[in-house]
Design brief:
The chain is of the alpha/beta class. The chain has 2 domains: 8-220, Collagenase (Catalytic Domain); 235-336, Jelly Rolls. It is built from 6 helices and 17 strands. It has a 6-stranded mixed β-sheet, with helices on one face. The chain has a 5-stranded mixed β-sheet with strand order 9-11-16-13-14, with no helix packed on it. A 4-stranded antiparallel β-sheet has the order 10-17-12-15, with no helix packed on it. Helix 2 (55-65) links the parallel strand 3 and strand 4. It is globular, with a radius of gyration of 20 Å. The N and C termini lie far apart (64 Å).
C-alpha cells in the first residue's frame, strides 16, 4: 500500500532545545491540542499573502482557509504585501507550516506555510497549524502505540522520503503535558494524520479526514484558543509610570486578559505582574497586534512574569494568561520606565 502524504511541523530553534518527549500511554485517547504560547491575540485580523502559485491554487486557499474564521474569533485578510503574518508558498517541498505566532520570527522574504499539494483537506490542516494547532497524534495522552520500525520504513519512502529523525519529530514523539492545551477525544479532527493499523501495535488506525470536525469547530472557538468575546477592542488601558498596580483576575480556566499602553518616547519599559497567580505574558506592537515583541513566564518575583524591553513610540498590547489551563486567580500588572 502506498504511504500517505503527511505534513510536518516547522519549529523554531528555541523549541528544538525543548524536545518533544516520547511516551507510550494506554487508554486509546486522542485529543485536539494546541502548543502553549503560540496563539495569536483573540480578535486579531491576520494578513495572508501568496509567494507564488497559480490563480487556481490561490483561489482554493481563499475559499477554504476562511472556514476556520467561521468559528475562531480571528479574521484572515488576503493581501499582496509579502510582509504579511502568514505567507503561503506552493513549492515542491511537502506540506508544512510554522505553528501560530512562530511565523512572526521568520524573515519576511520567506514562506511560513507551504502547500506542496493543494486540496481542501491540506489547506484546512496547514491553516490549523498557522492558527496554533498541533498534530493530534502527538498528544501525550493519545494512546497510540506506534510500530516504530514500520512507520520509519513507510515514511522513509515516497512520497515523503523522511529520514528517521524527522519521522520521530513529526509522528513518534509526543508533546510534554506542560506544552499543550487540549480537548476531548476526536478521531474526526482535520489535524489528525490518516494512517493504517499496520503502523501501530494496538491496531489503532485513523481514516482520512477532509473537513473540520465538530470538535475542531468547538476547540478553535473555546477559551483555550479564540473565543467569541474579547479582542483588541476589549483591551484595558494601562498607565505608564504608575506605581499602583492595575488589579486583574483570570476569572475562568483558559481565560486570557488583554491590556494596552502607549509608549510616548523611545527607551526602556518594564511590564510586570505581581500576585499569587502563575501567569504567562506576551507583548505585541508597536501599532500591530500581531507583531510579537517578547514573552515571559517567571522572570518576575515568584511565579510572576516580567518583560524588560527597549521600545519605540507607539501602541502596545499585553496578553496575560494563567500558566495552567485548569486554574484561575488574581494578579496585578503595571508598566514603568526604569
Amino acid at each position: 500500500m502506498k504511504s500517505p502524504k503527511v505534513c510536518f511541523d516547522r519549529i523554531l530553534p528555541n523549541d528544538l532545545r525543548r524536545p518533544l518527549r516520547f511516551a507510550q500511554i494506554g487508554g486509546g485517547r486522542t485529543r485536539a491540542i494546541s502548543p502553549r504560547g503560540k496563539n495569536w491575540i483573540t480578535g486579531s485580523t491576520l494578513k495572508v499573502a501568496f509567494l507564488g502559485g497559480t490563480s487556481a491554487q490561490q483561489d482554493l486557499v481563499r475559499e477554504h482557509a476562511v472556514q476556520w474564521s467561521k468559528f475562531a474569533n480571528l479574521r484572515l485578510n488576503f493581501v499582496s504585501n509579502a510582509g504579511a503574518d502568514i505567507r503561503v508558498a506552493f513549492l515542491d517541498d511537502g506540506a508544512w507550516s510554522y505553528i501560530g505566532t512562530d511565523a512572526k520570527s521568520i524573515p519576511l522574504s520567506e514562506p511560513t506555510l507551504n502547500l506542496g499539494w493543494v486540496d481542501e483537506a491540506v489547506i484546512l490542516h496547514e491553516f490549523g497549524h498557522a492558527l496554533g494547532l498541533a498534530h493530534e497524534h502527538q498528544n501525550p495522552d493519545g494512546g497510540i502505540l506506534w510500530n516504530e520500525e514500520v512507520v520509519i520504513r513507510e515514511l522513509g519512502g515516497s512520497p515523503n522520503n523522511w529520514p528517521p529523525d524527522v519521522v520521530r519529530h513529526n509522528v513518534l514523539s509526543k508533546y510534554a503535558h506542560d506544552q499543550i492545551n487540549g480537548t476531548g477525544f476526536d478521531a474526526e479532527s482535520i489535524m489528525l494524520y490518516s494512517f493504517p493499523a499496520a503502523w501501530t501495535t494496538n491496531g489503532f488506525q485513523a481514516k482520512v479526514n477532509t473537513e473540520l470536525s465538530a470538535l475542531d469547530q468547538e476547540f478553535i472557538a473555546s477559551s483555550a484558543m479564540y473565543p467569541g468575546t474579547g479582542g483588541s477592542n476589549m483591551a484595558v488601558e494601562l498607565p505608564v509610570q504608575e506605581a499602583t498596580l492595575t488589579a486583574a483576575s483570570i476569572g475562568a480556566p483558559g481565560e486570557e486578559d488583554l491590556f494596552k499602553f502607549r509608549a510616548k518616547t523611545v527607551g526602556g519599559y518594564v511590564i510586570s505582574t505581581e500576585g499569587p497567580s502563575d501567569v504567562v505574558m506576551k507583548l505585541f506592537g508597536p501599532n500591530d497586534i500581531t507583531r510579537l515583541v517578547a514573552e515571559d513566564d517567571d522572570s518576575g518575583s515568584g511565579n510572576n512574569a516580567q518583560i524588560s524591553a527597549s521600545l519605540f513610540p507607539g501602541e502596545y498590547w499585553v496578553q496575560v494568561r494563567h500558566y495552567s489551563t485548569t486554574s484561575k486567580g488574581d494578579y496585578g500588572i503595571k508598566v514603568v520606565r526604569p
